[in-house]
């Protein structure tokens, strides 16, 4: 009997050892696949589909058609791409640079994800307020001048990028010479407080002089002296030129009320200024550059693009346009390749 029990115990021990051996070595079908055969991980869903939301602050210097169009283009681009995933606060500084600083300061305190600065004083306020929040400018003529950057080469190297509204100044000089070949004197009218206006003037004045014109500059500092300065300029010149200038654009009606009765034509730096007081322009679409700025914002917010390395973008095309009413009033006939400004 004892011998039988000993044999039975030995058999039980052998069975237990076999069971342990099977547990230690999983079947081939249960072994992990080699790393190269592992199923690929699912790609991350786009941020807006993963429940991400974004806050964006817009500071626009002043209300006038060009800047309004740029802001609308920016909003349209972002809302088309992000829908309800983006909250946009659109603020207007009513032409006051101090208001730009207040508006931008609020955005910084609210820790918005991105700031859009429409016009140079708004961009400068953003530059002074934050070096961490991404900032995109639009309606900026020359970023190196606006931001005080030495050796600017197309990227800022800081938390700022955006789009430029600069049209070819040599093309505008050619336009003036094409329409007014017999004129001798050109007065350049602009706001002395706008650095980008000064940049345009310093560029186009020698181009006009190369084309045989005597050029004189006339500056105003605020809306109160626009009419008086325009009167002086009209009395001393056969043609006026106004660069892309926010103050001038906001005072276009006052300028037109002086220049048109005086019979003095104005060549303008952009479409909306021309529609208010000019006769011809070589212009960009402000809506298009605003839309492009919105596309840049999407790349920063959703795809993590580095704003400091994003090149400043420029308008892809320019259009020769004319103000039909002012041209008719002044007896000016433009070539067939000019397009009448709508409205």
Q: Your description of this structure?
A:
The protein is α/β, with parallel strands linked by helices. The chain has two domains: 54-165 and 286-311, Response regulator (Rossmann fold, 3-Layer(aba) Sandwich), CATH 3.40.50; 169-283 and 319-340, Response regulator (Rossmann fold), CATH 3.40.50. The chain contains 13 helices and 13 strands. It has helices at 2-24, 65-82, 97-109, 120-129, 143-147, 169-179, 195-210, 226-236, 246-250, 252-262, 271-277, 286-303, 324-330; strands at 54-60, 86-92, 114-118, 135-140, 160-164, 185-191, 214-220, 239-242, 266-268, 280-283, 313-314, 319-322, 339-340. The strands form two sheets. Strands 7-6-8-9-10-12-13 form a seven-stranded mixed beta sheet, with helices on both faces. A six-stranded parallel beta sheet has the order 2-1-3-4-5-11, sandwiched between helices. α8 packs parallel to α10. The longest helix has 23 residues, at 2-24. It starts with a helix and ends with a strand. Residues 1-49 have low confidence and may be disordered.
Order of helices and strands: HEHEHEHEHEHEHEHEHHEHEHEEHE
Largest sheet: 7 strands, mixed
- Helix count, DSSP H or I runs of 4 or more residues: 13
Helix content: 40-55%
In the CATH hierarchy, the architecture of the largest domain is 3-Layer(aba) Sandwich
CATH class wording of the largest domain: Alpha Beta
- Unreliable stretches (pLDDT < 50, length at least 5) are 1-49
Output the CATH homologous superfamily of the largest domain. Answer: Response regulator
Do you know the CATH topology of the largest domain?
Rossmann fold
Which strand-content bin applies to the residues?
A: 15-25%
Q: What class do helices, strands and sheet pairing give?
A: alpha/beta
**Tally of domains:** 2
The side-by-side strand order for the widest beta sheet comes to 7-6-8-9-10-12-13
Q: Kindly provide the radius of gyration, computed on alpha-carbon positions and rounded to a whole number of angstroms.
A: 32 Å
Distance between the termini: 117 Å
């Amino acid at each position: 009997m004892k011998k039988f029990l000993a044999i039975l115990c030995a058999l039980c021990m052998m069975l237990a050892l076999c069971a342990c051996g099977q547990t230690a070595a999983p079947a081939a079908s249960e072994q992990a696949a080699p790393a190269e055969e592992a199923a690929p991980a699912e790609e991350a869903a786009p941020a807006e589909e993963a429940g991400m939301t974004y806050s964006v602050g817009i500071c626009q210097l002043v209300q006038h058609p060009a800047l309004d169009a740029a802001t609308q283009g920016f909003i349209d681009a972002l809302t088309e791409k992000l829908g309800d995933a983006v909250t946009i606060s659109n603020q207007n500084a009513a032409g006051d640079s101090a208001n730009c600083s207040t508006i931008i300061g609020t955005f910084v305190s609210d820790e918005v994800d991105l700031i859009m600065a429409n016009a140079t004083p708004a961009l400068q306020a953003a530059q002074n307020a934050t070096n961490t929040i991404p900032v995109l400018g639009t309606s900026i003529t020359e970023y190196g001048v606006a931001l005080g950057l030495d050796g600017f080469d197309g990227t800022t190297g800081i938390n700022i990028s955006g789009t430029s509204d600069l049209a070819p100044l040599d093309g505008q000089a050619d336009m003036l010479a094409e329409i007014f070949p017999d004129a001798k004197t050109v007065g350049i009218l602009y706001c002395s407080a706008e650095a980008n206006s000064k940049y345009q003037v310093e560029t186009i004045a020698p181009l006009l002089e190369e084309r045989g014109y005597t050029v004189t500059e006339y500056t105003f500092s605020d809306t109160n002296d626009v009419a008086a300065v325009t009167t002086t300029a009209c009395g001393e010149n056969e043609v006026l030129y106004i660069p892309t200038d926010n103050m001038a654009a906001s005072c276009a009606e006052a300028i037109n009320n002086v220049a048109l009765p005086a019979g003095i034509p104005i060549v303008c730096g952009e479409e909306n200024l021309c529609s208010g007081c000019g006769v011809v322009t070589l212009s960009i679409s402000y809506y298009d550059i605003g839309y492009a700025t919105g596309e840049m914002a999407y790349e920063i917010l959703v795809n993590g693009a580095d704003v400091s390395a994003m090149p400043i973008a420029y308008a892809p095309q320019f259009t020769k346009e004319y103000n039909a009413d002012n041209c008719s009033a002044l007896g000016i006939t433009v070539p067939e390749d000019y397009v009448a400004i709508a409205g």
